[in-house]
Amino acid sequence: MTLRLISLLLLTGLLPDALLAQSQDDAGAEIIPRYDVEIILFKNVKVPRSREFVLPASSPAKTETMLDLSSSASLEAARERGYEILDSDSFRMLDLVARLIDSPRYELLLHAGWRQPGLERELAMPVWIKGGQIYGNEYTSIDSKIELIDNRPVDATSGERVFEFDEQTLESQELQLQEQQTMPQHSGLYELEGKITIVLSRYLHTYTDLVLRRPRLSADPVMNNAASEAYLAANRADTLILNNHHMREHRRMRSRNLHYIDSPEFGMLILITPFEVAEGFEEAPIEPDAAAQPAAAE
After folding, report:
1. Looking at residue 115, what is its pLDDT?
2. Which of 79, 142, 158, 295 has the highest local Cβ count within 10 Å?
3. SS3 167
4. pTM above 0.85?
5. Same domain? 167 vs 238
């Protein structure tokens, strides 16, 4: 690709991130591009609280090869591979965090950031995050109940047992989960937990595998206090079972653009910015992802 064409693509913002890295290589510097990744995760407070079936599904699996943002040992090991946590002074979305905190519609779960190299998926290190409140050991996670149901059909592709989608089967399985409830073995579960993987191939890509844990039954803001308390008392078992609400997404990204990934229960804002910027090159302003945006914070 000629220098003139590269310059034109830079001006129009159409140059893929991987090609930008290659153009730096062609200039004589063998550099693996690095990116600052900043994320905001928040839950939707005012979502429908009517009783509905949530397909039982396990939480993401954590391995020792992941970067755990809450572990100093993990951070030290990840630093050798070019991953490091960002200082809050480097954050670019503090104004959005303030708006979310002030909004009655959302509740902030996590605001974090890290710096990493741009690598293929096979080499990229997943980043393990957790946030929100911590549920005590009086709560039972749906994770510990899934293995108790052994009469489910097996998916031909994955080889894993799956849950039927018809209402009668769902209700039967839900009753089994309640009847087989045992004492929880955990010492506390985070409300938000899971992994995020940032990959660079031709373009930047983000893979999310996150869960938001919420009690199967909680207070209904529409009901008056007395009626709500009576209803919760009559269904106490359901108030102590934590369902997993998933965000499993793959999204192609553009650096310097603000992207929004959502699910019915919670959402994520993510901004990926090249760490090293050519001297004299003025960074483009943050642009929202046109695909989807959360409702404006009130």
Report:
1. 97
2. 142
3. helix
4. no
5. yes
CA distances from 297 to 3, 15, 290 (A): 43, 33, 17
Band the pLDDT of 6: cuts 50, 70, 90. very low
> At residue 171, does pLDDT exceed 90?
no
Residue 61 lies in a domain: yes
Confidence check: pLDDT of 274 > 70: yes
227 and 83 fall within a common domain: yes
Which residues, including other chains, have CB under 8 Å from residue 295's CB and lie 6 or more apart?
A: 105
Alpha carbon distance 116, 40 (integer Å): 17
Residue with tokens 């990744």: 37
Which residues span the domain enclosing 27? 1-31
Same domain, 130 and 26: no
Tell me how far apart the alpha carbons of residues 165 and 53 are, in angstroms, rounded to a whole number. 10
- Tell me: do 21 and 61 sit in the same domain: no
**Per the structure, how many domains does the chain have?**
2
Count the alpha carbons within 13 Å of 97 in the hemisphere toward its beta carbon: 15
